[in-house]
Fold this protein.
Amino acid sequence: MTTVRLPLFPLNTVLFPGLVLPLNVFEERYRAMMRELLKTPEEEPRRFAVVAIRDGYEVAPSAPGMPDPTAEPERGPAAGFGPDPLKSFHQMGCIADAATIRERAGGAFEVLATGTTRVRLLSVDASGPYLTAELEELPEEPGDEAGALAEGVLRAFRQYQKRLAGARERSLATSAELPDDPSVVSYLVAAAMVHDTPTKQRLLQAPDTASRLRDELRLLRGETAIIRNLPSLPAFELTRTPTSLN
């Protein structure tokens, strides 16, 4: 088992390998993380791990609030994640490589990172200025018939795009080239589909590429049929936790 200890950045989203992650970093715990990553030479990867939040707040409360308006907000690296942060996160995430880290006036950072490798969360350490985690790196196995499944998923995804563009009264760019590598297809489609965090997390956790593609094919066909008959799509993301500025 290959393990690594990295800074941990919990988010209300799922990061997939190969996908780009822009971040606006303004909380002190994550600013401290970026300052530490900047110490890594530019020619070396500046890695941190992203995990989706199961139970907690992406941005820690910064002022007294409900139900007790006099209660002081939490402070520290684990603020918003309860007494045992490990239980607040989904147990599989993705390593991110920060290609760009730019500090703005006032100390916030603009970060552009790319997902690289799936990891399993083994433990979380809150003793420093930001969370760190011990992680097990997970290989991506192709599974059976991944190539044929990828072709089917791409066809279904194009139909899904067309239906979704029509439902939202948007134009569809047809010139974009889609990949043909099965694992890349599986991650791209997982990230692009309009689904909630638990569904995307399930796709990330698939045991192999073929299993993920089979799940995506089922989801795409189901969603395309729904959009065809019910083109007005619910804004489910508006019912979840407040949008983060990170």
Residues 2-137 form a domain with the Archaeosine Trna-guanine Transglycosylase; Chain: A, domain 4 fold (CATH 2.30.130.40).
